Every structure is written in C-alpha cells, then in structure tokens.
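Hey, sorry to bother you again with one of my protein questions. I've been puzzling over a protein and I'd love to understand its fold better. Take your time with it, there's no hurry, and the full record follows here:
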Amino acid sequence: SSHDLNKQHMSLLGSYETVLAKCKMLRQKIAESKAGILYSQEQCIQLQLEMSILSRQNGTLVKAALQKMRERAAIAREVQGIHAELSQLEAVEHTAEQQIQQDHKRLTYLATHFQELKQDKLEYEKEAEKILRDIDRAGHS
C-alpha cells in the first residue's frame, strides 16, 4: 500500500542519513590519521637530526643514541600502524559511499513506483465512478 511505501521511503531516508553521518565521521578520522602521520614523520626527521649530533659526540653518549634509535623504530612502527588504519578507514568509506549510491537508486526506484501506483489508483477511481454512473443510469431506465 502507499502507506507501506511511505514508511519504506522514510526508513531508507533515515538509513541514508545514518550512512552519510558515518561517512562524515570516517572522513574526520582519516583527516586526523593523516595529521598524525605527518606529525610522526616530523618526529622521525627530528630524531634523525639528534642522532647525527650524538654520533659526533663521545662514546658515553652511545647509550642515549641507542635509546633514540629504539624510539625512532617505535615511531616508525606507529606510522606503519596509522597507515594500515588509514587504508582500512578508506576502504570502509568506499564501502559506505557504494551503500549510499545503492540506497539512492532504491529510493529513486521507490519514488517512481509510488508515483505509478498513485496514477493507477486515480485511474481505478475514475473507472469505478464511471461504472457506478452506468449502474445508476441502468437502474433509472
């Protein structure tokens, strides 16, 4: 019925908006991840500079240099993790965008179908009125 179609239409609109909100949130997370990667890369460059200075100093600073290397390796692992997370987020965003497109196609189809049903209903009502008039006329003659 047209009431059910209307409910379906509203439900699809609701899920469409939910998916859009999720996409917006994912885009925000991706932007934050990218900023985090840039920050980590800057930290790596900074650590490399510090290490070159330490390497010119005497042997008592070797332990500190090794510690910096460990930190740098930890940051590099963190950067790799952020890259992986970013790839996952981009994949999820792509899936969400595909879902939005599918939902949009479905909404368009339902809207068209709804209009066709309304048109059919009008034609049936006209036909029914005509039949009733014919019956009425036949009853009077």
Observations:
- The mean pLDDT is 86.
- The two ends are 38 Å apart (CA to CA).
- The chain has two helices and no strands.
- The helical segments are 2-56, 62-140.
